[in-house]
Design brief:
There is one protein chain. By secondary structure, the protein is an all-alpha fold. The protein has a domain at about 50-160. Helices cover about 60% and strands about 0% of the residues. The chain is built from five helices and no strands. Helix 4 packs antiparallel against helix 5.
């Protein structure tokens, strides 16, 4: 049996905004505290797929270069560093940056994972709006993080062949 709650539309809207904000910041805080060794793995949802073609798919299909710089960068929150630019071009800097992209991606995947909870107090158009808000708050960021990481991993792979 699924337990649901009934709120007025305006109360549900406020609760949605509060819940998305709390879950988003909570996820960011949680993943900021994960050890870097946990981020170096390429398991499951984090694995770069063949179709991503070292980031070219994002450039061609999503035209990511035209809009990615307009997204806010919250990576510097919770004691982290901004991912607006590479910290360096050496192997360690690139590996660190790829790990930070994984951290951000995990954060946004966890935000998306919370979407079904909104069915507990939303229905109809409010549920649709809550789902759209979750998608809008995560999918563009996941795309940018995967794009950057796919490019970095391709560079690291090319360098390891030549070294």
């Amino acid at each position: 049996m699924l337990i649901t709650f009934s709120f007025s539309s305006s109360a549900a809207f406020v609760l949605n905004a509060f819940a998305w904000t709390l879950w988003g910041f909570g996820s960011g805080w949680w993943y900021r505290r994960r050890p870097e060794i946990d981020l170096a793995q390429q398991l499951g949802i984090l694995r770069i797929r063949d179709f991503e073609a070292s980031g070219l798919w994002y450039e061609r299909q999503m035209r990511i270069k035209t809009w990615k710089d307009h997204l806010p960068e919250t990576g510097a929150w919770f004691g982290a560093f901004s991912k607006r630019q590479l910290p360096g071009h050496d192997r360690l800097s690139l590996q660190w940056f790829a790990n930070e992209c994984r951290r951000g991606e995990l954060t946004h995947w966890s935000i998306l994972a919370a979407t079904p909870l909104f069915a507990l107090w939303n229905s109809g158009w409010l549920l649709g709006m809550a789902v759209l808000a979750g998608l809008a708050a995560s999918l563009p960021f996941i795309a940018v993080l995967r794009y950057n990481r796919a490019r970095i991993e391709a560079i690291l792979e090319r360098r390891s062949v030549w070294q």
